[in-house]
Predict the 3D structure of the following.
Amino acid sequence: MDYGGGSVRVLILGDSGVGKTTIARLLTTAGPGGGTPAPTVGCTCGVVRHVYHGAEYFVELLDIGGASKYQAARSVFYHNKDGV
Ligand SMILES: Nc1nc2c(ncn2[C@@H]2O[C@H](COP(=O)(O)OP(=O)(O)O)[C@@H](O)[C@H]2O)c(=O)[nH]1
Ligand SMILES: [Mg+2]
C-alpha cells in the first residue's frame, strides 16, 4: 500500500477512565470491542489508514495510560508527535 501522505502520530491523553482506550478501539477497529477495556499500562498502539485530499496517511494512535503512578514513564511517548 502506498502511504504517499506519510505517517502521522497522534497521542490520546487524559486521566484514567475517561475513555481513551474505548475511542482508540473505535477508531482502529470500527467498534468499541467487548466489555470494559483492561487498564492501559504504558501505551497501546493502534494504526488506521486515512485518505485526505487523495493522499493516504498511516495514522498511529498512541493510547497512553493515564494512571498517576506511570507519570514518570509517559514522557518517552511524547516525541515525534503530530497531534494530541
Ligand atoms: N457512558 C460512557 N462510558 C464510556 C465512554 N467511553 C468509555 N466509557 C467507559 O468508561 C470506562 C473506562 O474506559 P476506558 O476506555 O478504559 O478509559 P481509559 O482509562 O481512558 O482508557 C469503561 O467502562 C468504558 O466502557 C462513553 O463515551 N460513554
Ligand atoms: Mg486505557
